Amino acid sequence: MADEKQRYSMYDLIAKKRDGGQLERPELAFWLQGMLAGSVPDYQTAAMLMAIFWRGLDEAETFALTEEIVASGEQLDLQGLTGVTADKHSTGGVGDKTTLIAMPLAAACGLKIAKMSGRSLGKTGGTADKLASVPGFRLDLPEAELLRQVSEVGLAVVAQNKNLTPADKRLYALRDMTATVDSLPLIAASVMSKKIAAGAQVIVLDVKYGSGAFMPDVDSAIKLAQLMVKLGQSCGRRVTAVLSAMSAPLGAAVGNALEVAEAAEILRQAECAPVSADLRRLCLVLAGEMLYLGGLAANRAEGWRQAEAALQDGRGWAKLLQFLQAQGGDTAALEAGNLVQAAYILPIKADCAGYLAPVDAARVAEIVQFLGAGRERVEDEIDYQVGVRFHKPAGAWVEQGELLADFYASSLLRAEAAERELRSILQILPEPPQLEPLIWGLLDEHGQARPWAELINQQ
Questions:
Q1: Distances from the Cα of 112 to the Cα of 202, 305, 322, angstroms
Q2: CA–CA distance, 62 with 229 (Å, rounded to integer)
Q3: Cα–Cα–Cα angle for 36, 16, 30, rounded to 5 degrees
């Protein structure tokens, strides 16, 4: 380390990137090691992040940064597990509870899944927050217990290990405070360093675009997906990416316990409510893609059929319950259909007849955060019971007085304020709206962006 200090100066490295230069791997290592050791102060890391935000990183820099973030901490060793290990990651969204549906389906079909999920700093809870709404559920399994559960049950989801990718944790905290989150190479390095350190052989990404996502449109989502797939493949992983829209909330529910309840309903019932149909289909695609990449299905269509079979015959529901119970979760309320116990439930009904327009995901996220379902700071407490549940999908015909949504709140005043805000963005139209398909397509294992219609026609 003393030699490194003599060779490099953070001032010079910041200036180099500011002026468009390429950072070499030893320079990136010097920066990250110094950041964690305290010899590089936060203000210099913040300056470097802003230089990267404006100047970008090329592929070589991004690969090197990712590998150095992985090397900054421990890695989960899954090689002792029999079978194929798999993981899934979504780049964020509103009402995204796909992990709670796709992972049990994939595990029920034979994959081994050890997933680490973070608590959200966003407007709605992360997967760890959703699972924490199940009474007694443990997110802090020791590594030996985690591996044993994956071996016996096929699925475990835990809070992200503090010793995995510590450099990413520090970088993300500073990115969040310095308006440098929305940088394609920094997003890719952050996501893939955690996935690589978590040890799975197969990684399926769900890359979102639209008003409720990091990427504004499908073209930018494809660029991010291409970079993340290359990063994973460079580390010996099998990686593909599904490209899906996040302009409207995903499924019916937004809010932690509400989302767990919706996931349970989809797994428990052969059919689902129309408002959950797109979510159900996306989960089948994600689970099927994991099975195909893992070699448990001969082609993608076979992977989808296997996932559908596990849904229809109840194996996915049984696997969800087995997984929750293995980690201490009391599933009685979930099984009885009364996991959600909010103090106030406030209905919203249609003011007139017509066709329901899509609801803006970003605005819904803000409303749900106001109710208490998300956090602004790490130390903020989350109210697991609050949120909103929609009863009609976009494009549906509704009659005057028909129920559109329910608000779940711990405060009547907040519920009434949230109702007024949601009413201001709910639109009922005289003609059917043009709806964007949820799934645009796939970035396959060869790096080719393939629209959904092409995939369907070739299966």
A1: 10, 19, 14
A2: 12
A3: 25
Which member of 16, 17, 97, 194 is catalytic? 194
Half-sphere exposure at residue 97, Cβ-oriented, CA atoms within 13 angstroms? 30
**What are the strands, taking DSSP E only, across 257-402?**
344-349, 354-356, 387-390, 397-398
Question: Please, which pLDDT band fits residue 3 given cuts at 50, 70 and 90?
Answer: very low
Separation CA 21–CA 227 (nearest Å): 20
89 is catalytic: yes
Question: How high is the pLDDT of residue 97?
Answer: 92
Please name the amino acid found at residue 158: V
Query: Do the Cβ atoms of 410 and 391 come closer than 8 Å?
Result: no
Helices (H) and strands (E) in the chain, counts: 19, 14
Phi, then psi, of 376 in degrees rounded to 5: -100, -30
Of the residues 89, 237, 238, 392, only one is catalytic, namely: 89
Tell me how far apart the alpha carbons of residues 418 and 255 are, in angstroms, rounded to a whole number.
Answer: 14
The structure's pTM equals: 0.92
Catalytic residue among 119, 175, 195, 389: 175
140 is catalytic: no
- Residue of 87, 129, 168, 406 marked catalytic: 168
Burial of 263 per CB tally in 10 Å (0-12, 13-18, 19+) = buried
Angstrom CA distances, 125 to 236, 255, 375, 453, stand at 31, 7, 8, 33
Q: Which of 405, 391, 399, 392 shows the shortest CA–CA distance to 357?
A: 392
- Coil, strand or helix at 198: coil
202 close to 293: Cβ distance less than 8 angstroms: yes
Continuous H helices in 178-217: 184-197
* Mean pLDDT, range 267-288, rounded to an integer: 90
Long-range contacts of 213-219 (CB under 8 A, 24+ apart): 213/91, 213/92, 213/93, 213/246, 213/361, 214/91, 214/92, 214/181, 214/182, 214/187, 215/91, 218/243, 218/440
User: Given 190, 193, 244, 276, which residue is catalytic?
Assistant: 190
Tens digits of per-residue pLDDT, 120-134? Answer: 545 556 788 899 999
170 part of the active site: no
